[in-house]
Amino acid sequence: MKLELESGDVYDDVTEADIVEAIKGDGFAILGDDPMTYIQCAPQPDAPAEYVLEYQDGSEKRHFHAIDTPVTVDRVVAAFVKYARKDASWKRDFKWEKDEPIESFD
């Protein structure tokens, strides 16, 4: 599983220690096996959320964001660690809302 950071750093075989250090010390982070299936987060400057947390499950039509707040750094780290372990319980730790795909104007 690969972890990509706003700084440009990439961890190819990410460890739990990498996740903790990266999320607490960087801007946005993306963790996934392929470009269409991942979990991602970004610091949120506006209250009540500390972070924006999203995931995508194989398609842009299956993109979700956490809607229960606060989404704290500790909750984000826990979700990323579970995701890396392939422990699907991270989904139950949040309430999710599906994002509507952006329509293109051709």
Estimate the helix proportion, in percent.
Answer: 10-25%
Number of domains: 1
Structural class by sheet pairing and helices: alpha+beta
Morphology: globular
> How many helices in DSSP terms?
2
In quaternary terms, these chains amount to single chain
Strand content: 25-35%
Distance between the termini: 36 Å
The radius of gyration computed from the alpha-carbon positions, rounded to a whole number of angstroms, is 13 Å
Largest sheet features: 7 strands, antiparallel
Summed over residues and divided by their number, the pLDDT gives a mean of 90
Strand order of the largest sheet: 2-1-3-4-5-6-7
Number of strands: 7
Order of helices and strands: EEHEEEEHE
Unreliable stretches (pLDDT < 50, length at least 5) are none
Write structural notes for this entry.
With 106 residues, this protein is an alpha+beta fold. The protein has one domain. 22% of the residues lie in helices and 31% in strands. It is built from two helices and seven strands, in the order ββαββββαβ. A seven-stranded antiparallel sheet has the order 2-1-3-4-5-6-7, with helices on one face. β4 and β5 (51-57) form a beta hairpin. The chain is globular, with a radius of gyration of 13 Å. The mean pLDDT is 90.
